[in-house]
Amino acid sequence: MLNEEAGSSTLMRRDEALSHLPTRVAHRTSEKNPPPYGAQHRQEALWEGGNEALPPRWQQFEAPDGNTQYQDDTLVLESSKRPLPGVRLDDPGQLVHPRCEWHISPLGRSYFINHNTQTTSWKKPKPEHPAGSLMPECVMEGHSQCIWSLACLKASCNVISASEDGSIRQWKRDGEPVGKPWYGDGRGVNTLAVSLDETMVVCGSEDGRLRLWNIKEGSMIGEPWEGHDAAVRSLDWSPDALEIATPPIKTSHGWVVAVKYSPQGDKFISGGNGTICVWSRDGKLLIKIKGHDDAVMSLCWSKDGAHIFSGSADHTIRKWRAIDGKELVVLRGHTNAVTSLCLTPNERYIVSASHDCSVRIWDLKTNQAVGDPFLHDNEVWTVATSADGTFIASAGIDKRIYIWSLEAALERHQVGVFCALVFPYPFLMVLVV
User: Fold this and answer.
1) Are 239 and 251 in contact (CB under 8 A)?
2) pTM, whole model, 2 decimals?
3) Strand order from edge to edge, sheet including 95-97
4) Are 351 and 341 in contact, with CB atoms under 8 Å apart?
5) Residues 269, 172 within the same domain
6) Shortest CA distance to 123 belongs to which of 90, 75, 156?
7) Across 35-46, average pLDDT
């Protein structure tokens, strides 16, 4: 009797343990249609039953931080280092933009649920542009792959772009190209920074090298700089142009994926796995700032060096006091990772780009979003403001650079605020234009 009970208990524990494992699916090579809207299927692991291979349309590669990543034709997902067969994915159901989320089909193919239209599709849905939303002044086309980084020149207000297609391009505000594209070795260019005198631009590439370019001539200066074992995805030039800081590097405080020198040049900040570190220029850790719930993806300083702004994969933008790391403001409104930040020249506003396909303007006096977001057709990776404060440039996965009138956006917001008429009691009424 005791043996029967013990055997029964063992089977129950085994069955309970097995119930938490990902379910293998039969080997198939194609799926005609995504699951219908309202289907309850949730597959949280990639399986191709029995053959220890990834499902069709998926590739495996190593990320700079040593984690394994898996990519299909739409998404890049990071695993928790679980070996094949069976790769656990930690966040199916993630929003790609408001009321639209991605899931994984039984065969391991990404599909998308659009709750706005109550439909499912293999293709990632485009965000809906509300009637009357502000449209871009200009859309620049020429890159053939994702645009990772932008910079606006102060003197000319020209825009410089770096792309996965291996090229760097310069554009006038009206979209006219300036000269021919610049090419290194053809590999993707992930990040760029312009020297203070605007004579040179330094770029970091997928091959782990840095290249210095003459802006006027569009020619490379010297040989590429080597030293990184992985792709360079962020860099910054010191204000005196004597140094360039580049992650990814691993410190005792975790992986660094973003760096930014202070305007005074006496210190710099780094961000990575949810932590911001403030360093002296000679590499001494001054302050360690914690508060974000996910990776820090973008950083910037106020001109006086008193405040730090950070954008994170936790969907928030935060303002910190630089001297002691005290959190001062949390800006919420994005529905996905915040990938890029920049302050307007007067520092009244901060502009953010996000994987939720939007660019937003935030008023730093009210700590509120200004007007409606500017919408792209896909994830936005980079944003920059012109030195004269008249326009915003943004770009990302959709291969285009969008030029938005900052003046028009602010004027529209001010009209909405100042045209509110309130009549005294008993004729209470509010009219908003």
Assistant:
1) no
2) 0.76
3) 95-97, 100-104, 110-114, 119-121
4) yes
5) yes
6) 75
7) 63
d(CA 186, CA 166): 5
Check whether residue 152 and residue 62 sit in a common domain. Answer: no
Q: What is the mean pLDDT of residues 95-112?
A: 72
**Cα–Cα distance, 182 to 179 (Å, whole number):** 9
Do 108 and 168 sit in the same domain of this protein?
no
**For residue 220, how many other CB atoms are within 10 A of its CB?**
16
Q: What is the pLDDT of residues 194-247, one digit of tens each?
A: 999 999 999 999 888 999 999 999 999 999 998 887 788 899 999 988 899 887
What's the domain count of the chain?
Answer: 2
* Cis bond before residue 177 (omega within 30° of 0): no
Are residues 192 and 98 part of one domain? no
Buried b (16+ CB within 10 A) or exposed e, 90-120: eebebbbbbebbbbbbebbbbbbbbeeeeeb
Q: Nearest 5°: CA angle at 133, between 132 and 138?
A: 120
| Residue that wins the pLDDT comparison between 425 and 295 | 295
Residue 206 counted as domain residue: yes
Query: Parallel, antiparallel, or unpaired: how do β-strands 358-363 and 100-104 relate?
Result: unpaired
422 vs 146, which has greater pLDDT? Answer: 146
157 contacts 163 by C-beta, under 8 angstroms: no
**Do both 176 and 247 map to the same domain?**
yes
Same domain, 369 and 344: yes
In a domain, 432, yes or no: no
The verdict on 198 and 225 lying in the same domain is: yes
Range of the domain at 58: 24-121
Whole-angstrom Cα distance, residue 162 to residue 382?
A: 10
Residues 272 and 197 in one domain: yes
The first and second tokens of residue 400, run together, are 């285009």
Q: Which two tokens stand for residue 109?
A: 């193919």
DSSP 296-314: EEEEEE-TTSSEEEEEETT
Q: Residue 412: which residues within 8 A CB-CB, separation 6 or more?
A: 134, 371
Q: What is the dihedral of CA 139, 143, 147, 150, to 10 degrees?
A: -70
Q: What is the pLDDT of residues 361-397, one digit of tens each?
A: 999 999 999 988 999 988 899 999 999 999 999 999 9
Q: Which of 329, 339, 337, 416 is nearest to 370 (CA)?
A: 416
Query: For 82-99, how does the pLDDT look when each residue is reduced to its tens digit (9 = 90+)?
Result: 444 444 444 445 566 667
